[in-house]
Amino acid sequence: MTLVVLKFGGTSVGDASAMRQVAQLVRDARTQWDHVVVVTSAMGKPGVIHTPSDNVKVTDTLLNSARKAADGDAHAYQRARRELADKHQAAIDGVVSNAEDRRAISEDIERLLAGFEMLCASVRVLGEVTPRALDAVAGLGERMAARILAGALRSAGISSQAFDSTDFVVTNNNYQSAVPLMELTRERVRSKILPVLQIGIVPVITGFIGATEAGVPTTLGRGGSDYSGSIIGAALDATEVHNFTDVNGVLSTDPRIAPDAHTIDQLSSTEMSELAFFGASVLHPMTIAPLVEQAIPLRVKNTFNARHPGTLIVYDNSKVDDFRAPDKPIKAVTIIEQVSMVTVSGRGMRGVVGIAGRTFTTVARTGTSVYMFTQASSEQNICMMVPQLASETIKIALLGEFERELRNQEIDAVQVVDDVAIITAVGLGISRRPGVSGKIFGALGDQNINILAIAQGSSECGLSLVVSGGHGRDAVRALHTLA
Ligand code: ASP
Ligand code: MG
After folding, report:
1. Per-domain residue ranges for the chain?
2. CATH code at 332-480
3. How many CB atoms are closer than 10 A to CB 360?
4. Which of the two ends of the chain, N or C, has the fewest CB atoms closer than 10 A to its terminal CB?
5. Segment 366-384, tens digit of pLDDT
6. Ligand 1 within 6 A of 144 CB?
7. Which CATH class is domain 3-246?
């Protein structure tokens, strides 16, 4: 028995014509696989904008309205309700052919939007919006999209039914970036979905959302529908998971920075994790995790160019196609901008136990996650890259923590350099082939780009370099010549 999970992103369900395309892909998949399961994002912006409501990205609109409601704004959510009603109704009218079905779906959407307005009204009364409330609001987009997409499939002659994953994806209560409890989830997904598949129905499941064991709605974090696709795929022991987006797979870099960016045909899961962590926005960073144990292949494909093979992600590093031209030793280059470099330094730090530990604990207490850090073996400084927005808070926290050491001159300074960029070169070749780091440094040297700090990823398939913000994009272009 073969089973494929097809996950569609916001652009892929952005309007009626995109949904028709999805229906076509589902129809094709049914000729190739015994069972097809669909997971959908909320409606995003379609590729071509025809009407004002095309411009609405549903999840953004939902979240912005709730935040504005907390600030006392009652107009924003009322306006949003109308815009959202228009956008979804236009999709229904454009893609659901049966009048009875159209009416039923419209009623469902009306009910969900009425719930949205009520939630925002209570947020406004309370004057604050909790992460828990934001999750309840944010998940409405997927609920609406799943209903319409299931209708679109039925109109294309495919039996289909929409499902809210709050009924079977069980998560912890870490609102806004919840994590699934896999054992419970597996049990529930199977008991809900397998019987449906047995009778030939294509389930259309909401991405992005889950619920705690007590039934409180949660979300898996922005972009979390990718993660949902993999969670559902793992729970159902899928043969493959196909993640459909609006580009031809994972690109070698951001095409807005290097127009010659190309699709990578094969990536190992370690390379993919490195890419996702260091800013490639194509997949939610957790997407691979549920698939690793069962080694379920993941393909990243383009809804609007489905003939393109896309990118295949595999798990066994030794099976990754690494037969690459010698002048192209790396696979991809990423950039994270608006980063600050925080350095704790002092000659007296040498050999003093616990400074590094306290530094990280202090930063962790500010709620910031550190992109990368380096410590020279001389132990005279510890250097961390953090989001620029957090740099001032971190500096104050560190000055407080090390007040005594600063007074005793065990620590000389806590310094912040704003506006730096982290450039990461990714590829198994970096550790497999001698001389690759030399080429990387050479490419930057040729462009006169100064390197402020270096770290090699623990996975040994990434090399991260910190450069000044002004050099960031040039550095990407320079390294991309090696990809
Ligand atoms: N709709 C959610 C978001 O915009 C989840 C997703 O699209 O993956 O973040
Ligand atoms: Mg996405």
Report:
1. 3-246, 332-480
2. 3.30.2130.10
3. 14
4. N
5. 999 899 988 876 768 899 9
6. no
7. alpha beta
